[in-house]
Automatic annotation (TrEMBL):
Pfam families associated with the record: Cellulase (PF00150)
Tree of life domain: Eukaryota
Domain Glycoside hydrolase family per the UniProt entry, residue ranges: 73-319
Keywords associated with the record: Glycosidase, Hydrolase, Signal
Organism phylogeny: Eukaryota, Viridiplantae, Streptophyta, Embryophyta, Tracheophyta
Taxonomic source organism: Vanilla planifolia (Vanilla)
GO molecular-function terms, A-Z: hydrolase activity, hydrolyzing O-glycosyl compounds
Signal sequence coordinates: 1-24
Protein name: Glycoside hydrolase family 5 domain-containing protein
Amino acid sequence: MNPLFLICLLFAPLLFPHWTPTTATFASGVGFLSTSSRWVVDQSGRRVKLACANWAAHLDPIVAEGLGSRPVGDIAAAVRSMGFNCVRLTWPLYLVTNASLTSVTVGESLRRLGLAESAAAVAVHNPQFVDLTLIQAFKEVVSTLDRHDIMVILDNQISTPGWCCSKYDGNGFFGDTFFDPNEWLRGLQIMAETFNSSRNVVGMSLRNELRGPKQNLVDWYRYMQMGAEAVHLVNPNVLVILSGLDYDKVLTFLSVEQVELTFEGKLVFELHWYGFSDGGDWENGNINEVCANISRLMMVKGGFLLKQGFPLFLSEFGVDIRGYNQGITIS
Ligand SMILES: *[C@@H]1O[C@H](CO)[C@@H](O)[C@H](O)[C@H]1NC(C)=O
Ligand SMILES: *[C@@H]1O[C@H](CO)[C@@H](O)[C@H](O)[C@H]1NC(C)=O
Ligand SMILES: *[C@@H]1O[C@H](CO)[C@@H](O)[C@H](O)[C@H]1NC(C)=O
């Protein structure tokens, strides 16, 4: 058995004492979500546990991945059958702010990237998508997920369509080449408004993994607060989810100063945590000691928010399972 898997099974209850591997079904009655202290709850105040799968739609073609492999409904059913009740659906800002993309269809977008085979494959598995515009296709994915009782968190992954993230990709922080704060606020509002009547769109992550040489706290507070207000103004139903600095590994600064918003009951924070960010400790150290150390560290980086009365969404986590070293070989 994978020792790290074992460790993390032991470890999860420490960080999330009320977490169990079962997930609530998102049935029609659940309604929109809000927060109650550190919990996310439904309209009748019952706790809703988000168990989300990531589905990427922020890559170069701006088309949800996999539509060339299986019918969209099959993908949604597979997500559900694996026990997830939610999808974190990623989108690039350009999807809604770049005028040259407004009328581009799924087929055209794939073909102009030289992906004629993918376009043909989409025509086989999801023919109804080929002539949809990119935003229509994105909406169709969201409503398909709804038909399968799957909640959606819209995650603004990046501005320019493509793989995310590096410090110098011009997408890292407010003011970077492709990250104009006003364009971002406009894009958030368009998305929030577009999905204002989609009952399964329960949250919006305002921006994935802020990072890079420009990152600073003054702008973090200024723009994250503005982003949260902008979304809430046009779509008061969704949870607004704020990510931290340094690739969303750090929210420590919130222990000193909280964000100030005009509304309540909708604010969630998110944190990312990958084993490979721990500087080789898992491979080199005594694994029990490393586990204790990293658990402590995670509480300092963001776990303390639970005690402050905010939900914390662990929106990306993982270990390198390519088998490069003993510690993480799955056998
Ligand atoms: C819009 O997108 C195209 C294609 O990705 C890009 O070349 C162009 O620079 C973008 N325009 C703006 C105003 O961001
Ligand atoms: C959603 O936004 C549209 C466009 O602004 C608006 O006409 C509509 O009333 C809104 N619907 C809800 C449920 O807020
Ligand atoms: C755990 O933390 C302690 C105290 O900071 C340190 O002395 C020790 O080397 C760390 N152990 C590992 C395996 O990282």
